[in-house]
Amino acid sequence: MPLLVSRGARPARAWLALPLAAAVGALSACAAPAAEPTPGPVEVRLMVKLTRPSDDRAGIAAEVSRVAGVPASYRSLVSANWHALSLRCADPSACDAAIDRLRQARASFEAVELDGRKRGAVM
Fold first, then answer.
1. DSSP letter string, the chain
2. Counting CB atoms within 10 angstroms of each CB, which of 43, 58, 67, 102 has the fewest?
3. For residues 63 and 115, what is the distance between their CA atoms, to the nearest angstrom?
4. Pairwise CA distance, residues 60 & 35, whole Å
5. pLDDT in tens, the chain (123 residues)
6. What range defines the domain where residue 97 resides?
7. pLDDT at site 107
8. 72-77: strand order across its sheet
């Protein structure tokens, strides 16, 4: 059965809705602005081509870490000249700067490439 309300009662309903609208507006004004996500630690995999062939994994990782200025981990031997490593950086810009330092060290590294190989199979 429908509820019948006389015309004189409608303004009273409007008055009841005002506090609710004011409360919603006040709460939305107090809401904290959306914060930008802070970038966390980043790991970048790369390939380096040495100017002199070597298979000394610890020595290669130490040299890459020293030149890059960030911790480096040895991943795998590709050939006597090419080696896969990873850099651990505080944020993406720190990794970019580390890669630039490696590329400028022409006495140690003939080439520095980002490792773009796919990881795992996609079915």
1. -PPP--GGGHHHHHHHHHHHHHHHHHHHHHSPPPPPPPP--EEEEEEEEESS----HHHHHHHHHHHHTS-EEEEEESSSSEEEEEEEESSHHHHHHHHHHHHH-TTTEEEEEE-----S---
2. 58
3. 18
4. 40
5. 555 555 655 555 555 555 655 555 555 555 555 566 566 788 999 999 999 999 999 999 999 999 999 999 999 999 999 999 999 999 999 999 999 999 999 999 999 999 865 444 444
6. 42-114
7. 94
8. 72-77, 82-89, 42-50, 109-114
Query: Rounded distance, CA 104 to CA 82, Å?
Result: 17
CATH code of the domain in which 99 resides: 3.30.70.330
Q: Say if 80 falls within a structural domain.
A: yes
Residue type, 82: W
Angle at 49 (CA atoms; ends 106, 92), nearest 5 degrees:
80
Within a domain: residue 21? no
Instruction: Provide the number of structural domains found in the chain.
Output: 1
In angstroms, the CA 120 to CA 99 distance is 25
